Structure formats: C-alpha cells, structure tokens
Amino acid sequence: MNQDEALARFEALEIRIAHQDRTIEDLSTAVKEQWQRIDSLTKQIERMGDRLQRVEDIVPPDGPEPPPPHY
C-alpha cells in the first residue's frame, strides 16, 4: 500500500467516523425527547387517575346505573 492509498483510506475512515458521530448524536437527542414525552404522559395519566378517584369518591357505585328516563 502506498502513501496515497493509505491517505485515502484514512480520509474515508475520518468521514465514516464523522457520520457515525452525527448519527449517535441524533439518536441521543431522539431518545432524550422520547423520555421527556414519556415523563409528561406519565404525569398526565397520574393526574387523570387522581381525578377519576375523586369522582369515584363523590359518586359511590351503588350497583348498576338506572336506565335514563327516555327508556
């Protein structure tokens, strides 16, 4: 292998590493955004569960609900 071939291979490796670094950074950013969204949705579900519990505390289940008056 002569010097020109070695230099070309070295440059190709540098380009490849640069692309891989960019891909890793993009993936890292995507994972971070997904975890933020998961955290947000988890908090929203917890709030909805709390609201549902308060409603259930106000309206205790007495059995089957009677049919509406138009039946």
Oligomerization status of the protein chains: single chain
The residue fraction in helices comes out at: over 70%
Q: What overall form do the CA principal axes indicate?
A: rod-shaped
Overall number of strands? 0
Q: Assign the structural class, choosing from mainly alpha, mainly beta, alpha/beta, alpha+beta, or little secondary structure.
A: mainly alpha
Ranges with pLDDT <50 over ≥5 residues? none
Span from first to last CA?
A: 91 Å
Number of helices: 1
Q: Sheet bearing the most strands, described?
A: none
Share of residues in strands: under 5%
Elements, N to C (H/E): H
Compute the CA-based radius of gyration.
Answer: 30 Å
Can you walk me through this structure?
Helix content is 79%, strand content 0%. It is mostly helical and 71 residues long. The radius of gyration is 30 Å and the shape is rod-shaped.
